[in-house]
Amino acid sequence: MSTTITEEAPTKKKLSPRKRAQRIRWAQYALLAIVLVVFALTANWEQIQSAFFRTDMIKLTLTEGLPNALKNTIIYTAGAFVIGLILGTILALMRLSSVAPYRWIASTWIEFFRGLPAIVVFIAFSLLPLAFEGLLIPFDPYGTVWVALGLVASAYMAETIRAGIQAVPKGQIEAARSLGMPSGAATRKIVLPQAFRIITPPLTNEVILLVKDSSLVYVLGLSASGYELTKYGRDLSSSNVNLTPLVVAGFCYLIITLPLSYLVRRMEARQKKER
């Protein structure tokens, strides 16, 4: 009677989740390095420099009218933000009102302007003088841009502000009312200050979006003195058949938005610590 001895196959040692994640991470680094090397070896750097980073065109862009375009972009954004913030606060309070018609009006406004592309609103405002003869908007062209962009911003800010108001503990409102404070005073002195403290990071994001949306001002057909960064860069690129001015204008947008993005991250991190 013979007995068969079978050798057990060595079991393959499984990688720990940490080791597996480490290998995946290194594989991703390697893939990224390969892509960068291939791009560096195959790109026509002379053509890229000539099309996007011509030294003489950079100098021309910086000295021709860039400061005025940058100033206009900031003014357009600031004015639209103020109008959007005021209207957004009113709409948020109307949305939370116990009066049904106020809620309906606010909801209709918010859904309407959130559903429309911003460029459509700009085009509509550019045609207003045709529909209403003799119509004059103060501080034109700034007033036109502030109102058009502010209407769109108000719809988004209203929802942000409403969320901030609802995040304030109701116990504080009840305590204020129990001390005899009127409802309006409690909202103004207790609710809104805390709500705006909560929603400061999202509102800063709205500023960033407004900076980028200001590039749609070109549809209003403004004169050169009213150009913002994108319109200025596009016109200079077209007249010189080179994309360098548009690239420089794009970097100017980054100069504005990157510090704001950093500020948002810092504020969000601070809020997390306070919780």
From TrEMBL:
Record bears the keyword Cell membrane: yes
Keyword Transmembrane: yes
Alphabetized UniProt keyword annotations: Amino-acid transport, Cell membrane, Membrane, Transmembrane, Transmembrane helix, Transport
Any one GO molecular function term: transmembrane transporter activity
Compartments, as annotated in UniProt: Cell membrane
Topology of this chain in the membrane: Multi-pass membrane protein
Pfam families associated with the record: BPD_transp_1
Gene3D superfamilies (alphabetical): MetI-like (1.10.3720.10)
Superkingdom of this protein's organism: Bacteria
InterPro entries tied to this protein: AA_ABC_transptr_permease_3TM, ArtM/GltK/GlnP/TcyL/YhdX-like, MetI-like, MetI-like_sf
GO terms for biological process, alphabetical: amino acid transport
Domain ABC transmembrane type-1: 70-264
CDD domains: TM_PBP2
GO cellular component: ATP-binding cassette (ABC) transporter complex
Transmembrane segments: 26-45, 74-94, 115-137, 246-265
PANTHER family recorded: L-CYSTINE TRANSPORT SYSTEM PERMEASE PROTEIN TCYL, MEMBRANE COMPONENT OF AMINO ACID ABC TRANSPORTER
Protein family (similarity comment): Belongs to the binding-protein-dependent transport system permease family.
The name this protein goes by in its record: ABC transporter permease
Species of origin: Knoellia sinensis KCTC 19936
